[in-house]
Amino acid sequence: MAKERATEKLVSRGVERGPAGIVADVLLHADQRGVSSHGLMRLEHYLKRIEHGGLNVRPDIHIEMTSGSSFVCDGDDGLGHYIVHEAAEYAVDKVKEQGIVMGLIKNSSHCGALSYYVKEIAEHGYIGMMFSQTDTIAVPFKGSAPYFGSNPLAFGFPKGEGEYPTIIDIATTEVALGKVLHAQEAGGEIPYGWGTTADGEETNNPNDIKYLKHFGGPKGYALAFAIDVLTGILGNESYGTNIPPMYEDLHRYRNLSQSIIVINPKMFGNNLMFESMLKQMETELKDIPTTDGSFVKIPGEIEMEKAFESDEVVINENTYKILFEEEER
């Protein structure tokens, strides 16, 4: 029901039904994995940006091979979810013969949880990697003003037909901005270390957060640097503080860049061995004793378990009103 309602909301703003369905699917994917910061709560923002002219509802997406193993995807400033989905499908089609394919996505916008796309890739039997720049929100290590965004990265590893892939999807900040926004709507406190006030002071009040902090000090900062290089700078596009903000200037196209890498494991050895060795490694990790009596989790396992727990998702009151109570315009 929620997917259909989200799709209809986008269609009512001029988005074609196919792309609208992809966007809704990406949002639901995040909610089902317990990552509500990238779920249906984002729909309100997309609708507002469409109304203000900051998203192209009928983009002419153009993909061009630039070598035997590289391509550029021009998203024509449409909804990033559909643009990245199209680029991922294109890469999957090419990688069977090429072995490795890298695509640079330009003139895109916010594309939601990267786990959705690397999961798609892994379900085809390939390794998926994704990087995305975001607008300025995090202070560099020992810096006093923000420069890079949360700049997430994701990996998807196949484990065979019928097996759920191993998914890693992380931001280079302690948390994604969406988690702070979710905490603001849900109320309550957040852990210290997620971000700072405008004066650079750490706080546990989500309403006082002005900037985020990179995880691991210089390590997260260095990764954010590399991701801006592999996206915006590689494509001769925006980077750092030049990227239009997500929640301001809603009339402007954001020109975000993402990079996608797809690897065919068969080009490097027996694919069945790759899958069996990956599963064996995960089994060995789970056998490691812990200090609290629990067991070691595989990266992405918590989100995977949540995705299998129920077909239902929990949404906040504001998102419910947008989906089910607000009159169509």
UniProtKB/TrEMBL annotation:
It comes from the Bacteria. It is an enzyme of class 1 (oxidoreductase). The keyword Manganese does not apply. Keywords: Oxidoreductase. Its EC number is 1.1.1.350. Pfam families: Ldh_2. GO terms for molecular function: oxidoreductase activity. Belongs to the LDH2/MDH2 oxidoreductase family. This is Ureidoglycolate dehydrogenase (NAD+). The lineage of its organism: Bacteria, Bacillati, Bacillota, Bacilli, Bacillales.
